[in-house]
Amino acid sequence: MIIPVYVNGVELSFILDTGVGSTIIFSVDNKNSLELKNATKIYLRGLGDEAPVEAIKSVSNEVRIGKALSASHTIYLVLDESINFSPRMGFPIHGIIGYDFFRDFIMDINYSNNYIKINRPSTYKYKKCKKCYRTDLGFQDQHKRPFLTAKYKSKKGLIDVNLLLDSGSGSSLWLFENKEKGIEVSENSFRDFLGKGFNGDIYGERTKIDELHIGDFMLKDVTTSFPDSVYIKGISVNNRQGSLGGGVLRRFNVIMDYPNKRISLRKNNYFEKPFHYNMSGLTIQHVGFAFAKDYNEKDRFYIGLNKIINQKTVQFTNDFVLKPKYEISDVRPGSPAEEAGLKKGDILIEINGRKAYTYKLSELNDLFYLEEGKKIRLKINRLGVEMRFDFNLRKVI
After folding, report:
1. Could you tell me the fold of the domain covering 2-110?
2. For residues 132 and 240, which has the higher predicted lDDT (pLDDT)?
């Protein structure tokens, strides 16, 4: 969920991420326009296989979301400009915000209507809810990150797993393989790009598990990712078996009660929807803008070349405007896209006969999650040469 956040009076767009403790900024177009106070240099480590990244730690900042205010807030500014989540989202993302801001509040997160409400504990009253699952949260990593116990069905039956609540992740479920505990990758899996972390791209196995139990709720055929061990070696996995991401959390309306270390879940209209995954093998990212012709009809009276339509005089003008530019950033080996001949770095021109720039990035990605057998027709630019490719979406798991 993307929310507006004011940092020292400057409005920015942040990912609401329960999986992080600190507030981190990693992409500001003009860093000089954002004043950060009392700065010192540090290094940060996260998922990925690269070295720790250089950052600035700044204290005593004012951070506001709506009417909720943190008057003396610590912020970390990542200096490496290549660490930028905006291309994968398709719109500006300046940072992530989690525990350090919300620790004094109770949050109502309504995924059905796409809003959050931030409440003060002194005035908040829980409503009676027979259909809700309410339980205590565990906190690790200096008590900043919330964990929830769930059960997943494996070859050895139902296994308890301690999961980080990671609302900032678009994935459904991540599990860390541990054969001794019965947490194993299914034979019916495929290798895939799983996401991007602070320390680089993350790869691993993607599969589906039969059942995931959270209290009295049971989710079936949950898309699940098993990251390679190299990507998690730098993080603390003590008593942690994985992460519960936005793909699962969005199926509930959630009350995150940080002061009392409680959570309440009530299923919403997304609960029964099936879990999908990318059947094309393509990962698309936004890589800036390009000029494109925009054909407009403007009211004119005998100016230039005119045409009478419905007794009204209009003029056709060719305006060049900036439109989003999309690039293939990853192609899964053995996927329909790779078999068709598509390559990393190809620039999208058309998809199914429609100009690529007329899509939002989320709409483009949705095309690859459609029904099996759906035909995808692409026109691309490869090093200045326009080419066409066709393939059909294919289930792997």
Report:
1. Cathepsin D, subunit A; domain 1 (2.40.70)
2. 132
